[in-house]
Design goal:
186 residues; alpha+beta; 6 helices; 27% helix
């Protein structure tokens, strides 16, 4: 949920008031500053977030205040390989669409009816908290959802780590004895 309900400060905040979205579309081009990139990298456990850019298109869906957010974003990240601990640079490029509805009886009624006219989604709408959408936080959340949890450098094999010099040189009864037995079985 991309709302102001988080207690922690939001590193990449770009708040849009739903009232600004009238007829037609509202387009926003967003780019994270170097400081915001550093803060987001720290938040998501990345070695680096070199760039984060997004285009957001917001449009009204109905007269009740429901808003569609179409988002296309790109990021250049650096993570540590889980096998070799070497840096892995990755370019992410993704699109998504979210629906927001006023956080009042209309939202509950729309979810209860399981239909909002003009929306083709199985997901219930996100609530519009205080009539606002933090588009920057939505982008940050989408980034977090698309970051590889266990990045592995191409060609990196766990067997090379298991049979490395640390295991070969370990004392027979030492802390690595169990690991040596496992490596010998493979």
């Amino acid at each position: 949920m991309a709302t102001a309900e988080r207690n922690a400060p939001v590193e990449f905040s770009r708040i849009v008031e739903a009232e600004r979205i009238t007829a037609g579309e509202l387009r926003l081009d967003l780019a994270a500053s170097p400081a915001e990139c550093r803060q987001l990298a720290r938040r998501f456990g990345l070695q680096a977030l070199e760039a984060l850019r997004a285009t957001a298109i917001l449009s009204r869906v109905d007269d009740a205040g429901t808003v569609r957010l179409r988002l296309h974003w790109q990021a250049d990240i650096v993570q540590d390989c889980v096998v070799t601990l070497e840096p892995i640079a990755t370019h992410l490029d993704s699109s998504s669409e979210l629906i927001y509805a006023p956080d009042n009886g209309a939202l509950a009624h729309a979810i209860e009816r399981e239909i909002i006219v003009g929306i083709d989604s199985d997901d219930p709408p996100e609530p519009l908290i205080d009539g606002k959408i933090d588009v920057g936080e939505v982008v940050a959340e989408q980034l977090a959802l698309n970051v590889e949890a266990y990045p592995r450098k191409p060609g990196a094999e766990l067997s090379a780590v298991w049979s490395g010099p640390a295991l070969a040189d370990a004392p027979a009864g030492g802390a690595f004895a169990a690991l040596r037995r496992l490596a010998d079985r493979s």
